[in-house]
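User: I'm preparing a small set of examples for a lab meeting where we compare how different chains pack in three dimensions. I only have the primary sequence for this one, and I'd like the structure in token form so I can line it up with the others. Please keep the answer compact; I'll paste it straight into my notes.
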Amino acid sequence: MFHFLDIIGTMAFAMSGALTAMHKRLDPFGVFIIAFVTAVGGGTLRDVLIGRTPVVWMQDLQYVYVIILGFILAILFRKKFDKLRTSLFLFDTIGLGVFTLIGLEKGIMTGLHPVICVALGTMTACFGGVIRDILCTEIPTIFRKEIYATICIFGGIVFFVLRELDLNKDVLYLTTSVVIITVRLMAVKFKWYLPAFDYK
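Assistant: Understood. Below is the structure token output for the 200-residue chain.
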């Protein structure tokens, strides 16, 4: 289940990056690069921070193949995505939920404190999107008033609470991912935002 979710998250973020790049009218090479860094950016930062090198995608070409597949699917079916922003949001939300979970689990495997695990999960989920937005000349979502990183932190807390109940790991993984995805969908639907600072 853990590996399956990892692949799903990689695919989702690759498609999110590709759709953003196409919206910015980049050429095919530019679209692929944005898709690639969106998919592996957070995981690369995570692996470097915990001292796991070479990073995971350099040791397992399956991730590269999944990114290429996501890139191709995004291009082939771009006209099917009637509402590009809706599709981008959906893929980005799925990646957010799954990659938070992966970062949490990697932190636990490394023996880190739960607070650090939550921070690691948040960085794993958000950093690829930060790179994507910067390269596409957008203010990163994590720095805007939209609830983004906060959801990852909330998901991390839910994960450790449920973990104390000694749930089956597959149930734990699925529940945490679904909670993060659902909360973000609700946050956008009901317009839940963090207050922005007023400069004046």
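A couple of notes for your slides: Residues 133 and 139 are 6 Å apart (CA to CA). Residues 84-110 form the longest helix (27 residues).

User: Perfect, thanks.
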